[in-house]
């Protein structure tokens, strides 16, 4: 019985870390898709923001994580003011309607 209490405690402590890791892994996956579509790594940034701040982030939402409480926002860097993201980046749920 004592062993199961320790396991439960360890899971409760590790849960927030696992949620953050999943958000970072989604961000990494999206970043890799964008790079694979020919955008240099220095040509964009991805930011994880709370849902209520996604509109003010100044970019395009390309993903979500943490049970849809966080959004991943794409911003293009450099002189190019265009904020278009490759269609195959992000998830199908987040892609623009065509």
Automatic annotation (TrEMBL):
It holds the Pfam family DUF1161. Transmembrane segments: none annotated. Residues 1-21 form the signal peptide. It comes from the Bacteria. Residues 76-98 are annotated as: Disordered. The keyword Signal applies. InterPro entries: DUF1161. Residues 80-98 have a biased composition (Polar residues). Keywords: Signal. This is DUF1161 domain-containing protein. It comes from Pantoea coffeiphila.
